[in-house]
């Protein structure tokens, strides 16, 4: 399967979260709250005879940092297991593009500046296996 199909499968799953803007590419502009599906790292041939490849994607979720307490509360809601993780894993085949996928970790919150605008963000690590 193509990287583009995997990225779009992740984005499709994330679009089930009401109010969250989702892109499967690096955007020119940020409209928060937004999830950005990044380019993967790939481990080829994780099973014998080209049996499978393993992709590790990063999904960044950005929220407005205008009021830091409100930003942390909003990001907390996306980081609950019933939100981003549940949405990504709602169709673990990513519309048939993958054998399996799962969210393996959430990295700590950080400030991210795009242009001159600061955002609060969190990065989720997603492992995707193809056959």
Discrete helix count: 3
Helical content class: 10-25%
Rg value? 15 Å
CATH topology annotation:
Alpha-Beta Plaits
| Shape, per Cα inertia axes | elongated
Set out the fold topology.
Blueprint: H1 3-14, E1 21-23, E2 34-37, E3 41-47, E4 52-64, H2 68-79, H3 84-88, E5 100-106, E6 110-114, E7 117-130
Parallel strand pairs: 1-2
Antiparallel strand pairs: 2-4, 3-4, 4-7, 5-7, 6-7
Polypeptide structure, described:
This protein is of the alpha+beta class. It has one domain (3-130): Phage minor tail protein U (Alpha-Beta Plaits), CATH 3.30.70. It contains three helices and seven strands. Strands 1, 2, 3, 4, 5, 6 and 7 form a seven-stranded mixed β-sheet that branches. The longest helix is centred in the N-terminal third of the chain and has 12 residues, at 3-14. The radius of gyration is 15 Å and the shape is elongated.
């Amino acid at each position: 399967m193509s990287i583009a199909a995997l990225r779009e499968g992740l984005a499709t799953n994330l679009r089930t979260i009401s109010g969250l803007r989702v892109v499967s590419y690096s955007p020119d502009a940020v409209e928060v709250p937004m999830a950005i599906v990044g380019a993967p790292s790939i481990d080829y041939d994780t099973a014998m005879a080209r049996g499978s490849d393993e992709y590790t994607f990063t999904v960044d979720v950005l929220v407005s940092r205008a009021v830091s307490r409100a930003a942390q509360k909003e990001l907390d809601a996306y980081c609950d297991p019933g939100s981003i993780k549940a949405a990504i894993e709602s169709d673990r085949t990513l519309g048939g593009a993958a054998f399996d996928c799962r969210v393996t970790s959430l990295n700590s919150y950080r400030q991210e500046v795009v242009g001159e605008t600061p955002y609060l963000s969190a990065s989720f690590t997603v492992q995707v296996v193809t056959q």
